[in-house]
Design a protein that fits this description.
- By secondary structure, the chain is α+β, with helices and mostly antiparallel strands.
- It has a single domain, classed as Cupredoxins -  blue copper proteins (Immunoglobulin-like), CATH 2.60.40.420.
- Helices cover about 15% and strands about 35% of the residues.
- It contains one helix and eight strands, in the order αββββββββ.
- Strand 1 and strand 2 form a beta hairpin.
- The chain is elongated, with a radius of gyration of 20 Å.
- The protein binds copper (II) ion.
- Copper (II) ion binds next to loops.
Length: about 110
């Protein structure tokens, strides 16, 4: 390949990168766990978004998807992130305190 052809390839790649509309950014939501409960579910959850789970309680909790797509074990003060892979209803509970339950509704991809 000549230098000239290489330069055109680079220009072409730059043009494609510039002209392609950016795919919608995935949003990041925060759900706090404290006082032995999950905070209210955020509005506007979409598949592809992430949730940052913050355990600000004095007890250890998990954020566990009933269908098994994630299972975060959070010491007091710990936080962890999960991604919402699919749209539809999601039931999250704590393995240590099964009465702690959070129902999320995840919309289709942006
Ligand atoms: Cu718990």
């Amino acid at each position: 390949m000549t230098h000239r052809a290489g330069a055109w390839l680079i220009l072409g790649a730059l043009f494609l990168a510039w002209s392609n509309p950016h795919p919608a950014e995935a949003a990041r939501h925060v759900i706090e766990i404290r006082n032995m409960a999950f905070a209210a579910p955020p509005a506007g959850l979409k598949a592809g978004d992430t949730i940052l789970w913050k355990n600000t309680d004095m007890f250890r909790h998990t954020a566990t998807d009933r269908k098994g797509s994630f299972d975060l074990d959070l010491e007091p003060g710990a936080q962890g992130e999960t991604r919402l892979r699919n749209s539809g209803p999601l039931e999250v509970f704590c393995r240590y305190h099964p009465n702690m339950v959070l129902h999320l509704m995840v919309g289709k991809v942006r």
